[in-house]
Amino acid sequence: MTQTTRVTCHHNQSTIRRPTAEHMTTKDLIAQVAQETGLSKEKVRPVVVVVFSILRESLAQGIPVILPGIGTVHHAYRKGRTAKTLKDKEAFVQADTYYLKLKNSKSLKDALRSLCKELGGKGGVPALTKPSERRLDAKDAQSGG
After folding, report:
1. How many C-alpha atoms does 3 have within 13 Å on its Cβ side?
2. CB-CB contact of 82 with 92 (8 Å)
């Protein structure tokens, strides 16, 4: 039996049951590719590893990666700033940094909007969360940590 979890759309807090999938690992991806292509996992694994390696090298060199149906992954610059620790409120300097950014493709945006409509929302990109996590976050916010 497939495990399910309740997910919520942020527009109107409606919930439906969806299969539980916290994240997809490389092992899961290899298994799914093997299943859909009919190839063995041993033949698929090196190909997936090489694809990830090429993507990593391209991004490290500052070359945007276009993934049809998903979007464009590129690096962005974040200027350094002064921040404070939450615990001690001590100031510290965060250095300038680069980070990865995903510009969603139209087809991915449309898929997310249709998911939100299925959940009863207004069609915006949904924020899917488990109700139990939302309650815990609210309690943490009220208690101050």
Report:
1. 4
2. yes
Domains contained in the chain, number: 1
Token pair in block for residue 95:
């250095």
pLDDT-based confidence at residue 129 (cuts at 50, 70, 90): low
- In this prediction the pTM is 0.58
| 52, 61 Cβ separation under 8 angstroms | no
Whichever domain contains 96, its CATH number is: 4.10.520.10
Give the structural domain span for 125: 4-143
Closest by CA to 17, choosing from 35, 30, 3, 5, is 5
Q: At what angle do helices 41-60 and 26-37 cross, to 10 degrees?
A: 130
Which segments of the chain are extended strands (E)? 4-8, 15-19, 65-67, 71-78, 81-84, 91-94, 97-104
Using CA atoms, how far apart are residues 59 and 55, in angstroms rounded to an integer? Answer: 6
